[in-house]
Amino acid sequence: MKSLVLILLFSFFQLYTFAQCLGGQVTVDVDVTTDSWGYENFWDLTPAGAGCGNGTLFSFGNIAQIGCAGAGNQTANAGGYGNNMTTTETLGCLTIGNCYDINFVDDWGDGGSTFTVTIMGIVQGPFVGSGAGNVFNFCVTVPFINNVDIATHEYEYTKIPLSQVGNIVQDGIISSIGAGNVTGATMNVEVLKGSTSVYNVTSSPQNINAGTSATFSNSGYTPIASGIYTIIYTADIIESDEDLADNSITFILDVTDSVFARDNGINDIGGVGIGGGLAGHMGNLFEITNSQFLTSISALIDNSTTNISGKNFEVEVYSTDALGMPIMLLATSESKTINGINQWYDLKLVPSLSLASGKYLISIKQDTSYQQQIGASSSISTSGTCWVSWTNQSWTLAETFGFDVALMIRANLNSVAEIDAISDKSLKIYPNPAQNKLNISDLKIGSQIEIINSLGQIVMRVDVFDSEQAIDITSLKCGFYTLKSNSDLRIQTSKFVKN
Q: Taking the CB of residue 332, how many other CB atoms lie within 10 A of it?
């Protein structure tokens, strides 16, 4: 049983009059949000501990086809709530101090409904339904008088190459979730690189009425070096906030040399797939802001639901339109054989794929011989970035089907492991990695060499006087570089690492 006890501050009750309710009562509503199969939902409200159908005060959803005994029967086909919508059910005036159960029943047995309890219009939830059903307990109380919370969007990537990173600080929303108005609300944002503060700003104060919210903006911060960044958002008010637990939010971002990731590294779903016997794709969208080479792709295959060991899989890269919908296949990775549970695989692109600025979809390809099991993080997702397609189903956003996830598919740009695979055979460089001197052969006399850093900036130009030439790279910073040879007849590129 899940439970939530709404904090009781009964001593404040006599200070406020609750419209349309008798003394000792407050208004209570429940917002019910469904997934793509709203008709599978039934719930009733009973006194705490009574059980579904015992002393029922209210019943909602698909009453005719499901009821308390319909958990997992998979017999419902229509009725009740609509799909992908939020419905507010008014419970009216309930007595302060009484406790109740929301008895949730799911006909299919796969959950998918969310319940948000509000008291006097102040949000006190939500509860997330799962499996064949849950019992959610709440007690009716007077909300805090002076209380705010803060909300913001997490940066859409959990790992991002330095060459691609932008502003990592988002706007925030502060809400007055107590019964009273608050004054002088401010949002402070601090960014730490390791333990060192690199950004700290506090917004101008605003007054916020009870039950309303205000947006707080900031100048933003873009990292200038790789490392672990902690972004802390904190809300403050002039009054003494009675619940500080919801006044702060913390996110962590890894600014890397090469790895792009949307997932948080936690496979908490047990693998997602399209369905057995269907050919299709599931993929993440990544936005390239500075042109770079995609050298390999990492993917976590769950392989715990059914044994798919011995099956081969590939990853494909697609260009997209302005909205991120895939439109053209650009490259296919090497094939890998699945041989473990919850295992990461690195799939090379040979040759590496040069990507200009724009949006690209990286997707796992599934054939008809088995159901793929891709690792996914459900606690972090960005709408409009996970796409799926299968036989007779064109590319569609995953949230359309009730899946808000970040697939554990990562893009690797300029990966050290791929240097040998992406070197142009007609332009030889050694050693690689190099520290002080880089030797280049098969050059055309009279051409020019350019060395370009991971930000796309030309950091060195050298004229070619011999077919074999050594370049002093001592002054270059450590990192990934592209070497380009320009002649009248051809352009050759190779990549190297300066260590």
A: 13
Q: What is the pLDDT of residues 256-315, one digit of tens each?
A: 989 999 999 888 887 888 877 788 999 999 999 988 889 999 999 998 888 889 999 999
Q: Which of 290, 295, 342, 346 is nearest to 317 (CA)?
A: 295
Pair (171, 209) in one structural domain: yes
* Structure tokens belonging to residue 306: 């059914």
In this structure, the chain runs to a length of: 499
Give the gyration radius of the chain's Cα atoms. Answer: 28
User: 399 and 381, same structural domain?
Assistant: yes
393 with 460: CB under 8 angstroms? no
Tell me, yes or no, whether 71 lies in a domain.
Answer: yes
Q: What is the largest CA-CA distance in the chain?
A: 95
Last residue of a domain, one of 97, 117, 139: 139
DSSP for 71-95, written as a single string: TT-----S-SS-SS-EEEEEEEEEE
Looking at the structure of the chain, the number of domains it has is: 4
Task: Give the global pTM.
Answer: 0.64
Percent of the chain with pLDDT over 90: 56
Q: Say yes or no: 267 and 245 in one domain.
A: no
DSSP codes joined into one string, 457-470: -EEEEEE--SSSEE
Residue 173 lies in a domain: yes
AA letter at 13: F
Which domain does 219 fall in, by range? 148-257
d(CA 273, CA 271): 7
User: Edge-to-edge strand order for the sheet containing 213-216?
Assistant: 148-152, 172-176, 213-216
**Torsion angle, alpha carbons of 410, 193, 164, 486, to 10:** -110
Contact 148, 182 (CB under 8 A): yes
Same domain, 213 and 161: yes
pLDDT score for 9? 24
Does residue 271 share a domain with residue 293? yes
Q: What are phi and psi of 306, to 5 degrees?
A: -135, 155
CATH number, residue 167: 2.60.40.10
Residue 223 φ/ψ region, left for φ over 0, alpha for ψ in the -120 to 50 degree band, beta for the rest: beta
What CATH number corresponds to the domain at position 478?
A: 2.60.40.3080
19 within a domain of the structure (yes/no): yes
CB 394 within 8 A of CB 327: no
Contact 431, 444 (CB under 8 A): no
Tell me, yes or no, whether 92 lies in a domain.
Answer: yes
